[in-house]
Specification:
This protein is 33% helix and 15% strand. By secondary structure, the chain is α/β, with parallel strands linked by helices. The strands form two sheets. An eleven-stranded mixed sheet has the order 3-4-6-8-7-9-10-11-12-13-14, with helices on both faces. Strands 1-2-5 form a three-stranded mixed sheet, with no helix packed on it. Helix 5 crosses helix 7, helix 11 packs parallel to helix 13 and helix 14 packs across helix 16. The protein starts with 5 loop residues before the first strand and ends in a 9-residue tail after the last helix.
Length: 517
């Protein structure tokens, strides 16, 4: 019988499994279970254990809401209360005896609502086989991870990520990795988490490079976060305080969150633009855990010593707008341009820039720009201003006409988890897509690994004058930024924290309390 590899970590010995030439260790605890007195608290490093801990299975997911339609969803797609051992991570190593391989730490997305590293689309074996040690982690999401609660630290999900990165620093050498060559890479909420980590003093020195894939530009003030948390807590007739919520089962909070998500557009006059997004959670710029919004902090030099690769897909919002029944009403189109477009004449600007676009298409482009493309571009501008090295990319390739180069396609390419059969089975699959997929995936994966290894992905750095961009299509090309029409519309916009509308802020600022009362 083949015995899996055993590695001694700082807390004890773990025994993994072999997947061909790649050693895999699943479900390694990096923090104590966030239950009881530790619930809604900052993570505490995992205690040591005796004997050999089996690392053959992924750890259980953290508490999360159901979202069976999302590619980020857990394998089962069910609402899950999580368990005591949910703060775990996984390691894929192509060479346990190697001397200091680059390390790539994956921070997955999921609208700050979902997080499960057992998702087969996050399998790190193919990426590890390209010559890096891959790490993925579970971190708290939803109310447990990101709600603003009196008596609890903000951004507990970000603190979990920092705890996992600290584990990497202390343990990854035993798996063949180099703790001085850590690259964090993440998509969607994972990318926005990475942007936050760039300006967080607690994260300083934990990684050398960072890759932001499709970063959503939503960060909340404490006032806005408190108003949202109070509304969720009211669904279960309690206050948004740690002392009230700690008595509730996670399922009660995930169900309360789902109830609020279903009616979020009704709160647009109270909460502002965030009510038009898919989630009630985002990192909170509290001045402590997260001292400032990423754009201002990065422009001020907070990430000067970190190599950055930033980008997005071409058709980000198509993931949502292509779903059955998603056609926006005229009122929804009007509200989107009233609340999301820059300036006072955003609708006119988009009509002029995209004269042949239908209202639905302009709605889609606006959401793509406001939520993903322009926050990413402006972060690249901020990195250049801050004096750090930065590269920019766009994914333009797609395998089907319905979704185009939509949100989430990038990580399917990087991890190489789509099969030719799945591609061909799509109702609007392009004729040659199954043959093109592995080639596009190889280009992207190779550039990501090169960046993690050398600090350069293989094309010229970005600057606001040339706006050099790597565009991944059936054949990659390097060119000026391709979304020039949208870039001009947003050129003078300043991305910052989202707040309550001014007329609501004063009377809502204390919603949820500044301390247990």
């Amino acid at each position: 019988m083949d015995v899996g590899p055993a590695i001694r970590t700082a807390a004890g010995v773990v025994r993994g499994r072999w997947d061909g030439v790649v050693a895999i260790f699943r479900g390694i605890p990096y923090a104590e279970p966030p239950v009881g007195a530790r619930r809604f608290a900052a993570p505490v490093p995992a205690r040591s254990w005796d004997g050999v801990r089996d690392a053959g299975r992924f750890g259980p997911p953290v508490p999360q809401v159901r979202n069976v339609d999302a590619v980020m969803s857990s394998v089962s797609g069910r609402t899950d209360d999580g368990s005591e051992d949910c703060l775990t991570l996984n390691v894929w190593s192509p060479d346990l005896g190697a001397a200091k391989l680059p390390v790539m730490v994956w921070i997955q997305g999921g609208t700050y609502l979902e997080n499960n590293t057992a998702n087969p689309h996050y399998d790190g074996a193919v990426l590890a086989a390209a010559g890096v040690v891959v790490v993925s982690m579970n971190y708290r999401v939803g109310v447990d991870g990101f709600a603003h609660l009196a008596g609890a630290p903000d951004n507990r999900g970000l603190l979990d990520q920092i705890a996992a990165l600290a584990w990497v620093q202390n343990n990854i050498a035993a798996f063949g990795g180099n703790p001085a060559a850590v690259t964090v890479f993440g998509q969607s909420a994972g990318a926005a988490s990475i942007a936050a980590l760039l300006v967080m003093p607690r994260a300083a020195g934990l990684f050398r490079r960072a890759i932001s894939q499709s970063m959503p530009g939503t960060y909340f003030t404490p006032q806005l976060a408190a108003a949202i948390s109070a509304t969720i807590a009211a669904e279960v007739s309690v206050r948004a305080t740690r002392s009230d919520l700690v008595r509730l089962q996670p399922r009660a909070l995930t169900e309360a969150t789902s109830a609020v998500i279903a009616k979020m557009p009704e709160f647009v006059d109270i909460w502002g633009p965030m009510a038009l997004t898919p989630t009630p959670f985002s990192p909170v710029v509290d001045g402590d855990v997260l001292p400032c919004a990423p754009w201002s902090g990065v422009a001020g030099g907070a990430a000067r010593e970190v190599d950055l690769l930033i980008g997005h897909t071409r058709d980000e919002f198509r993931l949502y707008s292509s779903r059955p029944g998603s056609e926006p009403t005229p009122a929804a189109v009007t509200a989107a341009f009233d609340y999301l477009a820059p300036g006072t004449d955003g609708d006119r600007c988009y009509r002029a820039a995209y004269p042949d676009a239908t209202p639905s298409r302009r709605f889609e482009v606006l959401h793509t720009d406001w939520l993903f493309r322009m926050p990413s571009l402006h972060l690249a501008d901020a990195a250049h201003t801050g004096g750090g090295p930065v590269w920019l990319y766009e994914l333009a390739w797609s395998f089907n006409a319905d979704q185009g180069a939509s949100h989430c396609l990038d990580f399917l390419l990087l991890f190489g988890t789509l099969t030719p059969e799945e591609i061909r089975a799509h109702r609007s699959a392009h004729p040659n897509a199954a043959n093109e997929f592995p080639l596009v995936a190889q280009h992207m994966r190779g550039d990501w690994v090169r960046f993690a290894t050398t600090g350069e992905p293989g094309w010229a750095p970005y600057d606001p004058q040339s706006r050099t961009t790597r565009v991944y299509d059936s054949e990659p090309v390097t060119q000026p930024y391709p979304e020039e029409l949208s870039r001009r519309i947003w050129a003078t916009h300043r991305f910052d924290t989202l707040d309550l509308p001014n007329e609501r802020r004063d009377r809502s600022a204390d919603t949820g309390g500044a301390g247990d009362r």
